[in-house]
Amino acid sequence: MVKSKPISEVQTDSCNLAASEQKSPKEYFDLPSHQEIAIEYDVPLFVSIKDSMMMELLNRRTSVALPLDFIHITSDYGYRKDPVTFVKGTFHNGIDLRCAKGSLVYAMMPGVIEKVVYSESGYGHHVIINHVGLRILYGHLGLIAVREGDVVSAGTIVALSSDTGKSTGPHLHIRAERLVEGEWKSINPEPFINHLNSYICGLQEEMENLHFASRPDRPLNLHNLFKVMKDCGVLYPKIVAAQYCLETGYGSSNVCRNYNNLFGLYNSSSHEYYRFRSWEESVDGYVRMIQRRYNPKKDKDYYAFLKRIGYAENMDSYNAKVRAIANTL
């Protein structure tokens, strides 16, 4: 507590005192003394080594993204037969990626929106992002969510895919250019996207190893999921893989991470989600609990089967989402 002298000792008519006679605040109040201290540490306080490593991996992971949730190249960079005019030897200065109409299109790295073009010819509605020394064109877009001059981060939603311009159907055209001696030169974007994909997969595997404190027998990704589904005899694997993507938010949900439950399998008796020892066991559980009830004589297709057994609350909406994801796999 700050101590002060009795109020009667304080001169109120200080204007009549000469400057030399005026007392400083220290003479009226006992001011507390201060001492500087220094704290040295190598690790942030209240954060474990494991947390710090995870944060570093997360920071690296959020600095890059793929342009679509799923990457499947339908047309390579280079000379080809034009799919619209059927002229042979036409140069294709990018790659085409399969996607359903209305798929989310993401910025792959931090950058600045250099150009936004609305057109019904050529690339159609398209966006160019400048990444300093590298710029990427996204073509045949529908709704565009950015404006020229916007600064975007990796993973920012740039647009929804469509089939505007010179196109035979919905897809995403990616064109890449590199700055060489002051001029933009067209390059094949496929090696760049493959590198991004490998880098992201490596980071995700590191995070899984850190999360589970040991290296899992088989990392959870679409490649391994399709392998396990084949081993377990899963019917309609693309639809089932799409269910996994929808149910778990592409493997990010708590039910997936904590229960190894890939398909939201629910025990209606105990009102709890099923827990599995591994994600592979969850695939086998899906076959035993769900697909054993499939009847090709009764169900015209797998979507009708899911609706018949009431897999989700709003089956029309659920099946529409699963179908859209399955079309990209």
Automatic annotation (TrEMBL):
Key words of the record: Signal
This protein's record includes keyword Lipoprotein: no
Gene3D superfamilies per the UniProt record, alphabetical: 1.10.530.10, Glucose Permease (Domain IIA)
Ranges where the Mannosyl-glycoprotein endo-beta-N-acetylglucosamidase-like domain occurs: 228-328
Domain of life: Bacteria
Entry-linked InterPro entries: Cell_wall_metabolism_enzyme, Dup_hybrid_motif, M23ase_b-sheet_dom, MGlyc_endo_b_GlcNAc-like_dom
Domain M23ase beta-sheet core: 91-178
Keyword Signal annotated: yes
Protein name according to UniProt: Peptidoglycan DD-metalloendopeptidase family protein
Organism whose genome encodes this protein: Xylanibacter brevis
